[in-house]
Amino acid sequence: MRRIIRHLLFFPWRLRQLFKQPVLDVIEREIAASEQKHSGQIRFAVEANFGLLPLLRGVNSRARALDIFSQLRVWDTEQNNGVLIYLLLAEHRVEIVADRGINEKLDPAVWQKICHDMQQSLHQGNYAKGVSTGIHEIDAYLVAHFPSRGARRNELPDNPVIL
């Protein structure tokens, strides 16, 4: 019941208050700059809350992140190296969904640590810093495992997605 109340009381306008256009622009530039150093593709999506029906169905942040990963076609990259950072504001939950090319090279504990680091910033109210932290930590792994080789093609948009 507390979860439902938390979602219902986290009004969608708060998302726009926390992620104003200048913050979204910074996130987009950080993703674009990151992707210059590797062949991976990063997407960022943020959602204020779930509606009542998904809450009653028991949808959790992980299931929603997997759904968004599919909807945004993050899996549709040549080297299977797309990564989605999904943020659910009502629960201060961060989920990272990586395509199979990356997951073959990294232990799931890596993603859990990045999510934990981001959540620390979110709990302190540092939303932009939390997202930047996640992008930079993911960037380091992508550079190590998918270094840029020659001309780079941007396979997915860099702009943040507001759900």
List keywords for this structure.
163 residues, alpha/beta, Diaminopimelate Epimerase, Chain A, domain 1, four-stranded mixed sheet, 8 helices
Explain what you see:
With 163 residues, the chain is α/β, with parallel strands linked by helices. The chain has a single domain (2-148), classed as Diaminopimelate Epimerase, Chain A, domain 1 (Roll). The chain is 53% helix and 13% strand. It is built from eight helices and four strands. It has helices at 2-9, 12-18, 21-35, 52-57, 61-71, 100-103, 108-123, 127-145, and strands spanning 41-47, 82-88, 93-98, 161-162. The protein has a four-stranded mixed sheet with strand order 3-2-1-4, with helices on both faces. A hairpin with a 4-residue loop joins strand 2 (82-88) and strand 3. Helix 3 runs parallel beside helix 8 and helix 7 (108-123) runs antiparallel to helix 8 (127-145). The longest helix is centred in the last third of the chain and has 19 residues, at 127-145. The protein is globular and about 50 Å long. The protein starts with a helix and ends with a strand. The mean pLDDT is 93.
Describe the structure in brief.
The chain has 163 residues and is an alpha/beta fold. The chain has 8 helices and 4 strands.
How much of the sequence lies in strands comes to: 5-15%
Oligomer description = single chain
Give the class-level CATH name: Alpha Beta
CATH architecture: Roll
Order of helices and strands: HHHEHHEEHHHE
Q: Major sheet: order of its strands?
A: 3-2-1-4
Q: Average pLDDT value?
A: 93
Radius of gyration: 15 Å
Q: Could you estimate the helical fraction of the residues in percent?
A: 40-55%
